[in-house]
Amino acid sequence: MNHPLPLHHTLASPSALARVRYWVGVDGGGTGTRVKLADATGRVLGQGEAGPSALGQGVAQAWRHIQAALAQAAAQAGLGELALETCALGAGLSGANVLADAQAFIDTQPGFAAVLLENDGYTTVLGAHGGAPGLVVAAGTGTVGEVLRADGSRAIASGWGWVCGDEGSGAWLGLRAMAHAQQAQDGRVPVSELARRVWAVAGQDREAILAWCAGAGQHGYASLAPLVLDVADAGDAAALALRAQAVAALEQLAHSLDPQAELPLALAGSIAKRLLAYFSGNIRARCVESQGDSADGALLLVGSALNDKTGTR
Fold it and tell me: Which residues form the ATPase BadF/BadG/BcrA/BcrD type domain (predicted)?
């Protein structure tokens, strides 16, 4: 399935594109960057990793870490330093939906024959379903869903951030577990095993809990999610209620993107995968194993663009 060029891209002339020898697929987020280096048939030759390349953390940093991960991938493939004009790069980056940052990323590209930029949710969909129509619900630290429909249209839902969104995510579960533990501390609700487990992490008294919350941030709250699910597995009523709410939120997300319940669904992220057994029968029946990841989806962007522009592959 060919896909339209991303809104943000730069391409050399068709004759220059025809001389591209390597494809580069980038998956970049707020904690790290993964690069897959492939030959001009899409066969992966090497992989590399580096620091974050989410555009919200800075465009210069994104390019620095992408090139560091690419150098690692090239070394793994037994190649020397790559001439960038022989490479076409596809990137799925967190923050690519912020237009100013996306354009700055394209404008400062260091000399690749092509750069194709999408948000990492879309490249995750492409990778998961091999470029075919499908849906991805990702729930780990945060939550987001994205769909590619049979008519080529796309949609995204959730992903609004942990402060007031990302329902069903690890941070969302952790926030609610902490709220329950605070209420139990006050005597507003009965003390549960969930409350005890949260206190074991955050502290046993009001001052300690307030201090923990002040410094927790998204990742701190998300770190509480596994204990919520562990305690739910053991039958704790408060944890079971939170687990049920998370399942309902993720099912609602899937339904909003595919109301006809027709498309294959791939799950991404530790929370979504752990909750699979508790989804409704229809959701479970449509779940498929991902064919690839976001970096694979970025490679598909490159292949589609080069096929369209050169007609040689």
Answer: 24-301
